[in-house]
Each structure stands twice: as structure tokens, then as C-alpha cells.
Automatic annotation (TrEMBL):
It comes from Streptomyces hintoniae. Gene3D superfamilies: SGNH hydrolase. CDD domains: SGNH_hydrolase_like_1. Keywords: Hydrolase, Signal. One of its GO terms (molecular function) is hydrolase activity. PROSITE patterns: PROKAR_LIPOPROTEIN. Residues 1-27 form the signal peptide. This is SGNH/GDSL hydrolase family protein.
Amino acid sequence: MRKRGLRSRTVLAAVAAAVLGAAGCDASGGSGGARARGGEPSPVPVWDVSPNSVVAVGDSITRGFDACTVLSDCPEVSWATGDSAEVDSLAVRLLGRTRAAGHSWNYAETGARVADLPAQLAAAEAKRPQLVTVMIGANDACRSSTSAMTSVAAFRADFTAALAGLREALPKTQVYVSSVPDLKRLWSQGRTNALGKQVWKLGICPSMLADADAVDAAATRRREAVRERVEAYNEVLAQVCAKDRRCRFDGGAVYAYRFGTDALSPWDWFHPSVSGQARLAEIAYRIVTAEKQ
């Protein structure tokens, strides 16, 4: 009887092991699947470094404003989706020139602020892209005065809502978020050009560029207030993006990039030139294709 009982228990144990194995359960009750060395499940990458479609949203920088001619958009040199060989945009780098022509779209608008993102993203959703690029915030700081700048609280609320809306519509779409450039550095570079300063008087970023040659205490405080607001916006972008596992912030790379005069528009000496757009494309490509962040 003891031998028969032992044999029965052995058979039952073997059957149970087979059933559990077929069900894909491990000893701890977790689901099975591919295993890495040491018995741990192999992690499934959340971020795809080679998305096959791109939509860009944002403001004048992403539209290539003033890069080709004065006071005009030039989307063909956009860092995000342009087809210019001089820029080698993010879309071209990711998709190749032929595929990028039919699988990348630019819904950025010159003058756009963070409150305009939901409408742009609604257009993006219709394309169901695998990657959305976002560069926004410069116009929230570039207002008629420092008191008119978008508050940090409002910026946070608007960006959070925009990203949440995209995530609800496209749960698996990846998002690359660029930091806002250092507007004070752009002023310090561009103020050396007489033509650029004349164009600034037409209304480009008055909070930073008004009275371009003034360096008195009041002007210095005004420009520093704009810079501090941009830094606060970048902190918001980083914090909100960090809560979304399919969102990558550039870590402040665009803000830290030291635009020289060759990287600025030859017409307004404030927006990126074709060369500047190429630098932005390089930064974005490096972030998007990094295996880990």
C-alpha cells in the first residue's frame, strides 16, 4: 500500500506540473513567457527606437519660420518633418526620405502657445502616428510684457490636459518633448545684428527683445524674468512627461544648446536658421533612438 500510494502521489505531481506548465504559471503564481538568464521574465521594451510614422506639433520653430525668407514659414527645413537634405530632419533620419514623404505630417503653427496643443493633437490623432514630436512654450514666454506671460500653473494644466487627451486617443503613441530654447541667449546673440534688431521691432518676442540694446537694471530684470519662466516651463515639461512611460523629454538639451550666429535666421537673428534646424534634428534623433533614457 505504501508503494502504491507513493506511486500515485508521484503520478499526480507529474500531472500537476504538466498542467501548471501548460497554463504558463510559475512557482510564485506569475505568468510565464520568455525568460532571461536567471529565470526572470525578459523585459518587453516600451519605447520603440524606430517608429514608422511621425507627426510634429508646436510653434514657429517647428514650422521653420524665418529660416528661408523673412517673416514666412518654411516647413521643408523643419527639424521634425522637413525634407531638406541640408537639415536631414528627424522624420527623414527615422523613416528614410521616401517613406517620410508619405508618413510624416507637420501640424505646428507659428504663434502657437501651449493652449493650442489640443487642437493640433486632434489633427495628429487622425493620422495615428507612432511618434509625436512636441516643441511648445516659447510663445507663452514671448508676450507683450512679462506680466502677460502664461503662468506656470496654467502651462502645467494645459500641457497635462493635452498629453492626457492624446494618451486617451492613442495609448501606444510615443511622444518626444523638446525643451524650450534659452530665449535670453538668442537675444544676446542676435543683438549684434542691426538688421535683426529692426525685424524684432515688428513684434517678435517683445518681452525679451524690446529695447534690444538696453542693459539697464529694469531691462536686465525683464529678460531674466523671461528666462526664469522658460526654465519653469521646462521643469513642467520634464515632470509631466516623466509620468508617461511612452514620453521622452530631451533633458533640457535644446535649452542648453548654445546657438551661435550661424545657427540663427539671417533675417530675424532669433529663430533657428537652416543650420540651427539641423542641430535640433540631431538632438531629437539622439533622444528618440537611445536604447535607454
